[in-house]
Design brief:
With about 300 residues, this protein is of the alpha/beta class. It contains 8 helices and 17 strands. It has a single domain, classed as L-arginine/glycine Amidinotransferase, Chain A (5-stranded Propeller).
């Protein structure tokens, strides 16, 4: 099948997702931290909200492919017992080179890449990278500025070894610039603090990104620059998320192309800012989905986008 997704705002054509079921009943007050969930969820309501999201995507012409439809036998049974698979973004990324099978930081998610690798092979998408120890890479740390520029967070869930694997494979081949963004301990992934909405607009949580300079790699070597300055020099303007909004996944928005995107419905101020700039924002419920620690961007693994 045709594949490749190297922007955040190109027209989304195909996406891999995982529909949650009764595996969510495994989460209890005693083990929620081990499962990386913020709190216990009601699985039927969680599933209903996820269905509303996938229905919205399909309504916009996006082909939603479900992980369970690509697995068989014991693999399918195993996937049905893993609550974190709903946040599919972290496990795999699909640039033009092929599938990147990533490597998770916590035990609750260790088996997920193996299942997703089998799904990629079933789809006919070649595996271009398997992150191996000691590398750690989670897909929530990938934010594409444009087709030729990947920004990647590290320090919390992705480490320097994993970052180096991605940079060496991509830089000079399918991207011209690689921006390594060190994250503070309170920020899980880069996509929780930064989202590129259009070639000239980003949603940003400044406090997550202005503590340390980023490393910009290109054919000339490497230089240090703060993220906001770097993006401003590239011609971007900003919608700034505050501390409360970043806690409730304000920047964690998934773009659909044609200035359309999906956000949790309570993200009212940022939605208003986007609409003032000509965006059509599809609002989805997420009172249960968010308890797992993720937003709309987290739940989608784009397989194909237009440039």
């Amino acid at each position: 099948m045709k594949y490749g997704a190297q922007t955040e705002y190109g027209r989304l054509r195909k996406v891999l997702m995982h529909r949650p079921t009764e595996e969510l009943r495994r989460i209890t007050p005693g083990n929620k931290d081990a499962y990386l969930f913020r709190d216990v969820v009601y699985w039927r309501a969680f599933q209903k909200e996820h269905d509303a999201f996938t229905d919205a995507l399909r309504g916009e012409g996006v082909e939603v492919i479900l992980l369970s439809d690509l697995l068989e036998g014991r693999d399918r049974e195993t996937a049905a017992r893993m609550p974190n698979l709903v946040y599919m973004r972290d496990v795999c990324s699909v640039p033009s080179l092929g599938a990147f099978i990533l490597r998770m930081t916590y035990q609750a998610r260790f088996p997920e890449p193996l299942l997703v690798e089998k799904a990629m092979r079933r789809l006919g998408i070649p595996v271009a990278l398997k992150v191996e120890p000691p590398g750690l890479v989670e897909g929530g740390d990938f934010v594409y500025l444009d087709r030729e520029t990947l920004m990647m967070g590290f320090g919390t869930r992705s480490n320097e070894e994993g970052l180096g694997m991605v940079r060496r494979l991509m830089l000079g081949k399918v991207i011209k610039e690689f921006v390594a963004v060190p994250l503070p301990s309170f920020r899980v992934h880069l996509d929780g603090a930064l989202m590129v909405m259009a070639p000239d607009l980003a949603v940003m949580h400044r406090s997550s990104l202005d503590l340390y300079p980023a490393y910009v790699y290109n054919e000339d070597g490497v230089e240090l620059v703060f993220v906001e300055d770097y993006l401003r020099e590239k011609g971007l303007e900003f919608i700034y998320a505050d501390d409360s909004e970043v806690r409730t996944f304000g920047p964690n928005i998934v773009g659909l192309g044609d200035r359309k995107c999906v956000s949790y419905e309570w993200n009212e101020r940022i939605i208003g800012e986007l609409e003032d700039r000509g965006f059509d924002v599809i609002r989805i419920p997420g009172s249960q989905l968010s308890l797992g620690g993720g937003g709309p961007h987290c739940m989608t693994c784009p397989l194909l986008r237009d440039d």
